[in-house]
Amino acid sequence: MKTVFEKATRDELINRIQSLRESDSAQWGKMNVYQMVKHCSRWDEWILGKSNLVYKQEFLGFLFEKMVLRNLMKDDRPLGKNSPSGSAFIIKEKEGNFELEKKIWIQRIAEYEHFSNPDFIHDFFGKMTTEEIGKFAYKHADHHLRQFNAHVLRSYAS
């Protein structure tokens, strides 16, 4: 199973992020491509320990975490469409500097090479192993890249 802790996987994600265009349309969901890129860079900042968000598990997650996490991690299946997002990761502004946000997200992906955040607690899944974090971070990025049809490397002549 792919993990952001492998260089080849990070390189793949970075190439897919670089292929995104401001004109890309979502295959599902409510976010536009700018909102998605900013959402993902903010989410990765949280995982990496670079945000001010509090690491605390929600009660509902406490009840169902092990069953849901085990199901998500059992194979390479992508995350389901329209998966819920924590309120801290909902991006309200519809436009901004798209190219800058891509660069920030790419930098966050690259930072997984030196991941060290032993205090991380997922708001639903609770305490996760480093292996689970690596796999889930890949699945999260992959999910959103697929959302904007960047599930395969695209090449553009222009």
Question: What does this entry look like structurally?
Answer:
With 158 residues, the chain is an all-alpha fold. Helix content is 47%, strand content 3%. A two-stranded antiparallel sheet has the order 1-2. β1 and β2 (126-127) form a beta hairpin. α1 (7-18) runs parallel beside α5 (130-147).
Which structural class fits the helix and strand makeup?
A: mainly alpha
In DSSP terms, counting alpha (H) and pi (I) runs of 4 or more, how many helices?
A: 5
- For the record, give the distance between the C-alpha atoms at the N and C termini, rounded to a whole number: 34 Å
Strand content: under 5%
Low-confidence stretches: 59-65, 154-158
* Residue share in helix: 40-55%
Number of strands: 2
Rounded to the nearest angstrom, the radius of gyration is 15 Å
Strand order of the largest sheet: 1-2
Features:
single chain; 158 residues; mainly alpha; two-stranded antiparallel sheet; 5 helices; 3% strand; globular; disordered C terminus
Short description:
This protein is mainly alpha-helical.
Question: Can you lay out the helices and strands and say which pair or pack?
Answer:
Layout: H1 7-18, H2 33-48, H3 59-73, H4 98-111, E1 121-122, E2 126-127, H5 130-147
Antiparallel strand pairs: 1-2
